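question for whoever is on the cluster today: can someone run the full assembly for these? two chains, 863 residues total. i dont have access anymore since they changed the login thing
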Amino acid sequence: MNRRHLLALIVTLPLAAGSSRFSPAAPLDKVMAKGVLRIAVYRDNPPWSWRAEGKLIGIDVDIGRALAEKLGVKPEFMELTADENMDDDLRNAVWKGSILGEPVADVMMHVPHDREFGLRNDMAVLTAPYHRESFALACDPARTDCRGTLVDMAGSAIAVETDSVPDFYLTGAFGGRLRGDVVHHLTPAAALVDLTEGTAGAAMATLAQVERGLAGKAKGLVIRRGPFPGLLKQGWDIGLAVKTDSRDLGYRLEDVMAGLLADGRIAGIFADHGISHMPPGA
Amino acid sequence: MKRILLATCAMLGLAAATPAFAAGPTDADLMNDAASTGDVLTYGMGPQAQRYSPLKTLNTENVAKLVPAFSFSFGGEKQRGQESQPIVHDGTIYVTGSYSRIWAVDSRTGEEKWQYDARLPDGIMPCCDVINRGAAIYGDKVYFGTLDAKLIALNKETGKVIWSKKMADYEAGYSFTAAPMIVDGKIITGNSGGEFGIVGKVEARDANTGELIWSRPTIEGHIGQLNGKDSTMTGKLNASWQGDMWKQGGGATWLGGTYDPETKLIYMGTGNPAPWNSHLRPGDNLYTSSTLAIDPATGEIKWHFQTTPHDGWDFDGVNEFIPFDLKKDGKVVKAGAKADRNGFFFVLDRTNGKFLSATPFVSKITWAKGFDKKGRPIYDPANRPGNPMEAAQGDTKGKSVFSAPSFLGGKNWMPMAYSQDTGLFYVPANEWGMDIWNEAINYKKGAAYLGAGFTIKPLYEDHIGVLRAIDPATGEIKWEYKNKAPLWGGVLTTAGNLVFTGTPEGYLKAFDARTGQEVWKFNTGSGIVGSPITWEQDGEQFVAVVSGWGGAVPLWGGEVAKSIQHINQGGSLWVFKLPKA
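^ ran it for u. tokens below:
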């Protein structure tokens, strides 16, 4: 036993003796000593993390489990309600905790790797990207064809999630000529239902949301992954975030994630959920 | 006869110390609250919410001697965001606190009678701190709303739950922070929640059972409810919205309303439209950023006035509309006034919503040059945040503009007061602006989205808050008091020629209502963001306020944070009176 581990033991003993309700973000040694990695995932966010028949499932949940397994500790999930933006989510999940008193997690899943976003959130460290997200437009060519010039889709309903990038893109682009055709829903899943049930000719969301929405119902439908002229954000990497004082944990998770990406485990998790895995940085 | 018999029974019950049968305030008592000096039964000290007391025992001559009678700590670790106004009835103060808590306190000794803590679920996400603005009282019940969007009726003697109604889905981001209002046996509430995907509504429930009587959506195209059936459509479908954007158009009614027994109308303010980028939603976007006059019997909208048509700056229109009698040119007009987020002080005819005047109550307004005779804003198009779709190639955001007031408003939630003696309104204002742009990319729930970007900036180095006395007949500012930190608490005025308000620095202050001269102050140990009240008890005049820093200001940071960074958290009720001679 080296000195570092001894130190970790001394530090964690009072923790173990105390209430298990309070588990502050712990750098690597503390995580190893307590044997638990507390992982923040979004509530109600399929196909990434949601509850089905009471059980927490999804791609982010499976990746979180794989990370914990490789560290040799148990995963413990913190379900996070999305706040108004992800700057708030980082504060609630990673570095401060919510004003309602819920403690922070050791690591948060599904955090965009964006330079400006990372710079202004200097209490968090973004690390270990594992997927590249992008948008996709799905349509039923019999009703409206989304393969050609987009503005030609005018006159047929296009379903989107309210206040999403696809919403603002389709209501704002082309001089607003599609605005009257855009149908708004509170979730991307509901928007895809419009397409599969035939009340809309097209629907636009992230590629993962589109693939999930069309699972088993994609017959005769077309998915356009691009190009989307004038779309301000074509894609972004997602990865992990840890608190700024937990860099050693971040480095270790980065190594573990690189291994999971290299040995095909991540791609396998995506395949299990029927979602295309896009390597980060692509 | 039966009624008298019942009352006798109730009194006997009291004498026998079975308080569960004690009678409580009636509809008539609530409507008379502004005139009755021995109690405070409504949020706003009267349904009109003038926050005016005819009491004169305490006045500019003797207020310097005002001292604490007692202080009551809310206890626990939940020391933040006390935006409440206490209620006083029959020797008891009912006061709500942050995190959906309420106490009954002996109004003579400060001793606790009971406490009720709502059990809050995981995953609630109140937008702007964990606050609550106060309770309502009616008959044997006190009512308050919770952060998980429930309305709870408690036995006023025991604090035991009589009923609890889910008003909205907290998992969809709804919460409830306003004080409920009671009109003709109905409990009237608005709704509050996140910025996105919601539609404002006003609802009336049977105050005894909590059953819904009517519901009135605030966005045109939505259908109202009356007695379990569809009633009428709000406005006209697609008259001021394109496509189906009205479906999630915003317009939350999160601050609640006022009521005028003379016109028999509820006045309710509505929030800003969604989405933020106004270029995506051409049209006035009715009835967002408006005041609505609603019939309490049916929920029908009798008139509306939109203070910020086609809002592009997040100028919520929720602020209180206070009925008052305007004396102008030898005539008396049934008027109402509202100090809006957008920096203008509006005076309307409260019988029909007719525009009478709009005058600035802050020193700088950029979005509009003024209002025309019909009550339409004269926009300054250069000061609307640009359309990101028209940004130069490679630019990631729309044109940024400097806008004053900031989206936190010339006045935010904190209620103003109107003195029937001086004829002046006392408005807690703030002097700040913002750089605002329609942002290209931010992130929400793991995905890219387009929001608005903003940076709030104080306009002056030495102050943000300004308490202003405004003559509603002319818009003239009669006096002002400048405060370093933003003002975030309510105002009270009395016939003793006094104006009270609290400051984030912790002081409850009193001013001469005619001159603005500061005549008394007391530091409560934490920032004041609640609303003071006054009442008479055993021949003495009492003043009460809650103390406990919080609310939206400390959540925003930036340059504003410099004026508030040393303020400590807290949570207590303070009660003051003059020492006995």
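summary bc i know u wont read the tokens: Confidence is low (pLDDT under 50) at residues 1-21 of chain B. Chain B has one domain: 2-577.
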